[in-house]
Amino acid sequence: MTDMQPLISAQSVSRSFDVSRSLTDILAGRQPKIHAVSDVSFTLRSGETLGIVGESGCGKTTLGRMLVKLIPPSEGAIEFDGRDLSDMDRPAELAFRRRAQLVFQNPFDALNPHFTILRSLQEPLRNARIPQEEHDDRIAEALRMVHLSAPEHFLKGYAHQLSGGQLQRVVLARALVLRPDFIVADEPVSMLDVSVRAGILNVLREVRDRLGLAAVFISHDLALVRYVCERTLTMYLGTVVEDAPTRALIEAPLHPYTKALIQAVPVPRVDQSHDPLPIHGALPDALNPPSGCRFRDRCPLAEPRCATETPELRDVGADRRVACHLV
Amino acid sequence: MLLNVRNLMIDYKTPRGNVRAVDDVSFEVPAGAVVGVVGESGCGKTTAVRALTRVMPGAARFAGGSIDFEGRDLVTLPEAEMRALLWREIAYVPQSAMNALDPVWRIGHQVEEVLRDRGGMGRRDARARSAELFDMVGLDAKRLRDYPHQFSGGMRQRASIALALALNPKLVIADEPVTALDVVIQRQVLDTFATLQRDLNLSVILVTHDISVVAYICDYVVVMYAGRVAEAGPVADVLSKPTHPYTMGLYNAFPELAGDDRDLSPIEGAPPDLLNPPKGCRFQPRCPFAQAHCGGTPPEVQVGPNHRAYCHRARDAAELRTKARRAETWEGVTAA
User: Fold this and answer.
1) Does the CB of A56 have a partner CB in chain B at under 8 Å?
2) pLDDT digit string (tens) for A211-228?
3) Partner-chain residue, chosen from B41, B186, B191, that has the shortest CB–CB distance to A266
4) Nearest-Cα residue of chain A relative to residue B218
5) DSSP H helical segments within chain B, as ranges?
6) Which of A48, A257, B42, B91 is deepest in the core (most CB within 10 A)?
7) How far does A268 lie from chain B, in Å, by closest CA?
8) Do B249 and A195 touch (CB under 8 A)?
9) CA distance A269 to chain B (A)
10) Cβ–Cβ of A270/B268 closer than 8 Å?
């Protein structure tokens, strides 16, 4: 194993879901599909943190779930440490489940309400067959990492007795007890109060710096992503439209959609711009995405060729990619 | 003044005793203004504004104070008059509008129901008005035939705003109207709201935990903590000169797009248990600037015109603001 090898590599990954058929579909022998993720490729090395931003419905959650093997891709392949996720025998799969962890969006239903907090933290260790005598140390280590002080006060308690911030820390600790090499955090702070969010973001940053694991952070808010991730992908309707170091993406966005996302980031200032966003309407119907560039019907710059030619995600400069005819 | 809330107190009866969820809360809503009520989960903001509709959970009771709405006290107003006032003068957009619409009826039916039952309109007028309302909030009138599940989160939020506007109310109370929406949709819904507010000269009370929403759309802000007002005033003044350490904390916990890559400063700990609130200033156990005398009831300090804060150390606010910007100020406060 060398450090130069990517830990995760997604190669032209697509995922579609069948939707229910109408009578005319059945008569015509059609099966309509929603293409949640289309042809996404990227690599991620140990120690790297990748942000995925986009609106609800852009496919970011589906991509995250594929990365931890909760659902298989319809096309393309995801490799973890050189092994294809869809081609693993039982021991390899067990090892993968230990090494890759998902942090859920809503801490209020991520924990079993019938389990004590302690039991919730032991569960992954039992499932991974970690020897019993290691459990207490591992749990203590994970709780320290997420800055949950005075665990004796809540370990015997249940999820409903904890605040949202405490719960999300428990959920993070549960992901960390297995000392994973890779975590996917799907909107880990969107359900939390702003005052509590900051603490969780600080923990994510510390985890990144101290454990050197590979992480994917999924969010719709670029200010949050900026805080945790070195590199960011912008997704729109299942496709990656821009890929750049986060700082460059925010300071000099190339894709018009990234620009709109930046302008939409809320800030606590009175003297902010109230100009309308350079983007109108909502995501188009994923069943019938627009031809050519999928963003064109909301794009302020769209030209005729945007309707006929699909823009490729191409290199611009050393470490940036963008999919737009006008860049 | 359209609405004047004075020394409002609301108790919840719980098996473990009485909880004063709203304690001596006062604020005003001028006609045509947008007032933000901001604070963490459990600070009493929803309880306080729901009281304005008198639609409260069974365990809640008024324990004091008054709610003056154009010369009528909503605390003591007879039930029939209160009922006549809801929808027509005061409308409520509930939290998570996602679930506020009835899933088994077409959305158009739900809008028409309000127009006909509450507004006394005929079927034809109600139908025309529904289309007009959908148009106002930026929805296609054809979608009135849809069921709520066919709408996205942002569309449902717009539909419930349309519903609230059905009978031309003077005051709209919106509880967390953009929470759980992504940033683009949030911005669009806020813009629609702002346009309607201006065009119809609505007064709006907006409840949120997010100080950026307040900054974007509100004229005045009431910052609540543990059932009490911590600070209140014109938004520009409160954000440029936060005087209560809790307001400073809310502000500094906010991640930004620009600027240095500093550590964010979370407000450590959790709000107090209101069955057993701390003596004196309720923020004191989480406050990095607490001193011995904070155990006494905090004084009301007039910071500027209409700008008040309840803090023993309000006079040191300028110095505290500088310190509050540093993440280490907030570290380990509650451990002590």
Assistant:
1) yes
2) 999 999 999 999 999 999
3) B186
4) A270
5) 45-50, 79-85, 107-113, 123-136, 153-165, 183-200, 211-217, 235-240, 245-252, 317-324, 327-330
6) A257
7) 4
8) yes
9) 5
10) no
Contact A195 B267 (CB under 8 A): yes
Q: Which residue shows structure tokens 């959305």?
A: B107
Check CB contact of A92 with chain B, cutoff 8 Å.
no
Q: What is the pLDDT of residues A143-198, one digit of tens each?
A: 999 988 778 888 999 999 888 888 999 999 999 999 999 999 999 888 888 888 88
A205, A261, A269: residue with CB nearest B183: A261
Distance CA A100, CA A86 (A): 15
In whole angstroms, give the CA distance from residue A142 to residue A124.
13
CB A134 within 8 A of CB A111: no
User: Closest Cα to residue B266, out of B254, B258, B257?
Assistant: B254
Per-residue pLDDT of chain B (336 residues; tens, 9 = 90+): 999 999 999 999 999 889 999 999 999 999 999 999 999 888 999 999 999 999 888 899 999 999 999 999 999 999 999 999 999 999 999 877 667 789 999 999 999 999 999 889 999 999 999 999 999 988 999 999 999 988 888 888 889 999 999 999 999 999 998 887 888 888 988 998 899 999 999 999 999 999 999 999 999 999 999 999 999 999 999 999 999 999 999 988 888 888 777 778 888 888 888 999 999 999 999 999 999 999 999 999 999 999 999 999 999 999 999 999 888 888 877 643
On whether the CB atoms of residues B137 and B162 are closer than 8 A, the answer is yes
Residue A169 has a pLDDT of 92
- SS3 for A89? coil
Q: Find, among A34, A281, A157, the residue nearest to B158 by Cα.
A: A281
A226 and B257: CB-CB below 8 Å? yes
CB distance from A226 to chain B under 8 Å? Answer: yes
CB-based contact A198 B212, cutoff 8 Å: no
Q: Is A106 on the interface with B (CB under 8 A)?
A: no
DSSP state of B176: S
Cα separation of A124 and A183, whole Å? 14
Strands B220-225 and B171-175 turn out to be: unpaired
- Test A270 with B267 for CB contact under 8 angstroms: no
Q: Which of B182, B187, B250 shows the shortest C-beta gap to A194?
A: B250
- The answer to whether the beta carbons of residues B145 and B106 sit under 8 Å apart is yes
Residues 158-217 of A with CB under 8 A from B: 163-166, 190-191, 193-199, 201-202, 205
How far are the Cα atoms of A163, A218, B281, B297 from residue B272, in angstroms, in the given order? 11, 32, 11, 16
Report how far residue B267's alpha carbon sits from residue B332's, in angstroms, rounded to the nearest whole number: 10
Residue A106: closest C-alpha in chain B: B180
Measure the CA–CA gap between A69 and A102, rounded to whole angstroms: 10
Q: Do A270 and B235 touch (CB under 8 A)?
A: yes
Q: What is the ipTM of this complex?
A: 0.85
Coil, helix or strand at residue B206: strand
Write down the pTM of the prediction.
0.89
Q: Is B299 helix (H, G, I), strand (E, B) or coil?
A: coil
Angstrom distance (rounded) from CA A128 to CA A115: 18
**Which residues from chain B sit within 8 angstroms of residue A223, using beta carbons?**
255-257
Element (H, E) at B289: none
Please report, as a single letter, which amino acid is at residue B4.
N
Beta-sheet pairing, A321-322 with B220-225: unpaired
In degrees rounded to 5, what are phi and psi of residue A294? -70, -20
